[in-house]
Amino acid sequence: MYETVMNQFNNTADMIDLNPNIRKILGITNNEIIVHFPVKMDNGKVEVFTGYRVQHNNALGPYKGGLRYHDTVDIDAAKALAMWMTWKTSLAGLPFGGAKGGIQIDPRNYSDSELERITRRFTYALGENIGPEHDIPAPDVNTNPQTMAWIVDTYMSTISSSERSHNQHVVTGKPVGAGGLEGRDRATGFGVYLSIKLLLETEQQDLKDKRFIVQGFGNVGYWASHFLSQDGAKLIAVQDAHATVYNEDGIDTEALAQHCEPRKGSIKGFDGATEIDADEFFGLDCDIVIPAALGNQITAENAFKIKASIVAEGANGPTDKEGEKILLQNGVKIIPDIFCNSGGVIGSYFEWLQNRNGELWQLDEVMAKIQKKLTENFHKIHNEVNKREVDWRTAAFILAISRVETAYKQRGIFP
Ligand code: NAD
Known about the structure:
Number of helices: 13
Helix content: 40-55%
Mean pLDDT: 96
Low-confidence stretches: none
Order of helices and strands: HHEEEHEHEHHEHEEHEEEHEHHHH
Bound molecules: nicotinamide-adenine-dinucleotide
Radius of gyration: 21 Å
CATH topology of the largest domain: Rossmann fold
Number of domains: 3
Distance between the termini: 34 Å
Largest sheet: 7 strands, mixed
Structural class: alpha/beta
Strand order of the largest sheet: 9-8-7-6-10-11-12
């Protein structure tokens, strides 16, 4: 993924003739934090874990980005994902920079109480490297509102008592009862849905009867499917880490969601579809492909099989360089991750603002705000696509990098 994001950055930097000094700054990550910390397991033994937090850039505001619990988490993955966050927050027009982190674990191997202790010790080990005006984590793969609630509680319990009352915005994506935002749960999937709908509208089409397939049926995959199905599109296949299921007559999104119990759930064994071979997934006959799981899923190995005309990147970095080349040659429109899944960080920004200002917003207000911001951003990218005659990712990167460049040009470099 690091190779992919650096390639995207360098191509854009060449294209916009990025100031060479600023190019040097943006081509590296500001801080790379690695912590090792001990945790007592349920059986009384101690295990030592390694956690990462990479802070790529904060020219536009505090570092912002998710925490992932997965066995693919390492320093390079965190660096790549942190850089994408800088471009995503910049493109979205938010006052944030970019960061990412996590722990290299498979959470299914741990009990809930072990995961709570792992999360709390990780938060403690990160110490002042995170903070509501410095670096604000959020959920990502295998982390959720509960994880964020443990982080906020640990953070508040370990800072001075005078600061405790006004630091809830140290993380976003919290449960609503613990300072979270109504609608943050669905914000990313809503953005994926809206970006597809807006793209179709540019071609005088709508979602009715469009057939879509989704890789990953977690937070992003489920909510994107929910909104697309509500608008008349038909979910025909889903793939997760355990199975691939297919039903050419359409899969009932809500029934599938009910089948997956939270956290440890899987689509495997769902009786409303047939299980098929994982290799068949990307070649299925459909209009829209939504990768909403991990990075590097669409590659030279499978991109040529894709029959859809739209790939909407719910996941971060799901398409590698070779995969992208093939898709573009075949006329597939790629809605790039830094826009397609930006509903999540936009929702996080509203949660941060809500906590910071001591306000409480209703679901309909939040969704209207997210929709407005995403729609404005979509039209900015669309204009750039038309003006420069480039693909959607290139247009999005040009806008994102140019905004950070302007901030550096105006502020100069200390001292
Ligand atoms: P999640 O943990 O809720 O769900 C992940 C899903 O991916 C699960 O269904 C899992 O089974 C599946 N998966 C894992 N490995 C897989 C594999 N090898 N093949 C197929 N499926 C696999 O995670 P999420 O929050 O939905 O995040 C999904 C993606 O969206 C990630 O790339 C994440 O960075 C990105 N994203 C998430 C948010 C957010 O708000 N949660 C925001 C922006 C981007």
